[in-house]
Amino acid sequence: MITQRGLRTDDRPALVALLASVDAFTDDEREVALELVDTRLARPEVDEYRFILSASDEPAELAGYICYGRTPMTQSTYDLYWLATSPSFARMGIARGLVAAMEEEIAREGGGLIRVETGSREGHTAAAHFYDALGFERTAVLDDFYAPDDDLIIFTKRVKTERDVSFHEMDEAGLYDAAFGYRDYGAERDFLLACAREFGEREVKRVLAWACGPARHLFAFADVGIAGIGADAGKAMVAYARRIAGPRRSGSAEVTFVRADLDEKPKVPRASLPVDLSFVALSGIHQLGNAKDIEKHLKLAASLLAPGGVHVIEATHPSDLTAAGVSHTEWTEMVGDKVIDARFRMHIERMSPERVVPVSLEVSYAVKGAPAATAQKPQPSLRQDGEWFIPDLAGWRAIVGAVPDFTLAAALGDFNVEVPFEHQSAWRLILVLKRV
Predict the structure, then answer these.
(1) Contact (Cβ atoms closer than 8 angstroms) between residue 117 and residue 153
(2) Could you read off the pLDDT of 22-63 as tens digits, one per residue?
(3) Is 187 helix (H, G, I), strand (E, B) or coil?
């Protein structure tokens, strides 16, 4: 299991090894990074440089770390100084989790502006795309700052006072919501809108989320005045989404929830259709067990989408079905006094020749600092077992090619319209289909 914690004196050798393993850093950069470590260790009572580490229990190994702190002579601005992850834990969400933890700490302190600087040379390209995907804005560029053709790029992001993650009853839907609370729904909304601008031909006024789950994406759309429809096969999940929606704040657009599977037409008022943008997030598409079922879903999605609109599918990267991929992840979320542990596994050793693989998700929680008597009581938990059909890119092209109303406009590798599937930093397969 991977957990987050603060910096300890005995972490220095592991940090030296971690920095040495990251090819993007120069020797000078590694030296400066260690200077900040030493400053913190020498004066732990001063929080000029704060550290959050992600560490693996078995084997005991440092997966990554982040260093940040308040910007001198400002009231609520923070600098993100260093962010590094071990290549051994690539594409496991370590960096995203560290940034989310930093943002949560900043939110608890009243919110503020985060500033991060990076270069434009080839070794820093992935870092720039990473910050783009997390919703940071490219605020300024200083040409040739580090060296000829190596510009300084300044990113900024504003953190709200409170993290927009809440959940109610500790039922399965609430546990699922809490487990995936690390996702930046506002940034992902902006990415989906960017897909519509880049590859579609419609202004987005209404969206449809298939397999919507707790519907956090739809709430993010509603916050910017875009109405939405959420379709999910689970009765409990739809009821949960309606509960947490509550009375929407002034200025938010309407969100409607219906029960419908991926191959079932949602029963909504005719005036709600067609939509301008639809999507299936978080590998939900893989619930469909074969190419014909996905083809059926695409034909249905096309029938509900206006010409020029786009349908976006966030799919699992095909390389994760190989020995070199990421088939098993564990993470921990902290929400208030609750500690949520989650484990997801694709059992690739049992994959069929048709690329159908058994999957499992387990989520449990405990109350931090609870009395022993309370801690010993059985707590609600979530376990989901199923089978996913995960095509490779050629398989996806064949499926889309069988649906006359769609063309494959793009195959992306991250939540960034500029990162193609073939890019070395690609960790998802995101398909953008245009309605013709």
Answers:
(1) yes
(2) 988 889 999 999 999 999 999 887 778 999 999 887 667 899
(3) helix
Give the whole-angstrom CA distance, residue 107 versus residue 269: 39
Dihedral sign, Cα of residue 31, residue 37, residue 40, residue 44:
negative
Kindly tell me the burial class for residue 63, based on how many C-beta atoms sit within 10 Å of its own C-beta (0-12, 13-18, 19 or more).
buried
Distant-in-sequence, close-in-space partners of 361: CB < 8 Å, separation ≥ 6: 342, 343, 344, 382, 383, 384
Residues present in the chain in total = 436
Q: Looking at per-residue confidence, does 25 or 394 come out higher?
A: 394
Taking the C-alpha atoms of residue 436 and residue 415, their distance in angstroms, rounded to an integer, is 24
141 contacts 194 by C-beta, under 8 angstroms: no
Tell how strand 227-232 and strand 206-210 pair up: parallel
Residues paired with residue 430 on neighbouring β-strands, in sequence order: 314, 412
Counting runs of H as helices and runs of E as strands, what totals does the chain give?
11, 18
Two structure tokens written together for 96: 């995203």
Q: What residue has token string 């997390």?
A: 134
Q: How many CB atoms lie within 10 A of CB 175?
A: 25
Kindly report each contact of residues 412-415 with a partner whose C-beta sits within 8 Å and lies 24 or more positions away, as own/partner: 413/317, 414/129, 414/130, 414/133, 415/133, 415/187, 415/188, 415/191
Whether 409 contacts 433, CB under 8 Å: yes
Query: For residue 326, which phi and psi values (nearest 5 degrees)?
Result: -110, 100
Q: Select from 19, 45, 17 the least CA-distant residue to 32.
A: 19
- State pLDDT tens for residues 135-180: 888 999 998 898 888 889 999 998 875 434 344 456 788 889 888 8
pTM of the model as a whole:
0.66
- CA-wise closest residue to 68 among 129, 24, 6: 6
Query: Is the distance from CB of 259 to CB of 235 less than 8 angstroms?
Result: yes
Which among 133, 137, 178 has a CA at the least distance from the CA of 418?
Answer: 133
Q: How many CB atoms lie within 10 A of CB 116?
A: 21
Q: What is the dihedral of CA 328, 332, 333, 337, to 10 degrees?
A: 150
Most confident of the ranges 65-79, 108-122, 392-406: 392-406
Q: How far is CA 380 from the centre of its chain?
A: 25
Nearest to 282 by CA among 376, 373, 183: 183
For residue 225, give the 3-state DSSP assignment: coil
